[in-house]
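Let us begin with a simple case.
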Amino acid sequence: MRPVTRLVDQIKEALAAFASLRTQPALIGGLALAAHHVVRATQDVDFLADAADAEKIDTLLRGLGYRCLHRSEDAANYLRGDEGMDFLFAHRPAAANLLGNAEVKETGLGRLRVVSAEGLIGFKLQAFVNNPKRTQDIEDIRSLLRVNKHSLNMMEVKSYFALFGREALLDEIIADLDR
């Protein structure tokens, strides 16, 4: 695993490059968990970005020495040596709303825009639905629900599970947490 100082430097460099974007990307994924009081190790940096900025992000990252591993309308993955950076592009109303409402938070990596805990749960659920082998995403959801249970907007959380037809999964997770 890379030292935290390298990860901080990677994020600072990216944020400086993103200063010219219409909308500043917001942290999602494993690193965003810490801003919501859940800590776990992760190797890459995940951002939610405005879909309208996708081309400019690609140009900026290539200028910083990253190579594009994959790019579609919905997502992109970049790598520079052992430094990964992934993007989900907000073009649907729900994702655009999460990006627009992302808050600046003090994190161990500096001041960063971070998607809400509810939104992070939604993205983790989407990742699991897209690839059921990603069981770490369910564990992250459990942790977010456990640690933030008194501050979460559960109607919003339930709406994400309903969107993916996984209401029974949420009921199961909540029942497990109540035991």
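The second case is a distinct protein. As before, the sequence precedes its structure tokens.
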Amino acid sequence: MGGRGTVFVISGTSGAGKGTIVERVRAACPDLWWSISWTTRAPRTGEVDGEHYHFVSEQAFLDRRAAGGFLESFLVYDQWKGTPLEPIEAALAAGHDVLLEMNIDGALEVRRHFPSARVLFVVAPRRDEQRRRLVARSTDPAADIERRLDVAATEEARARAEGFDIVVNDDVDRAYASVAGIIYRSHQ
């Protein structure tokens, strides 16, 4: 590995399937350095502290935020989420490519800090399919699902206006291949 690494951000609307795609990319590309974000929300079923997120108290989060310890941090659906900056800087300096998963606000902030970051924005093929995925996930009340769907069109428009790579997840194999191809081609 030579030189400084590249930052890859996988973003997308809620229920688009970005988490599934990230899992596949991580399994297929073990050399990508994975950043684990902090959050003040409770773990969902099956999530492990230190693997999916660092689940922390609001006070611990706000203390780190006040100290400038996050690349980006936002209040997302009433819970704080943030990406620790220091480990990313260290990984990039060591020549590792970095993989981040976050919402559009975080992706925009990452690109402000790292202008060469490559942002891939995952969308569901249709709103009815996005709704089906959110309901099937069984993690959010109906009002939260509706709020997430209301925000999706605005997020997609912002992603297109910013020139993000749009990946339509109408088939997870095809969407994964598209994301992996973009990452692979960035090094040619």
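Residues 35 and 87 are 8 Å apart (CA to CA). The chain has a mean pLDDT of 91.
Keep these points in mind for the review questions at the end of the chapter.
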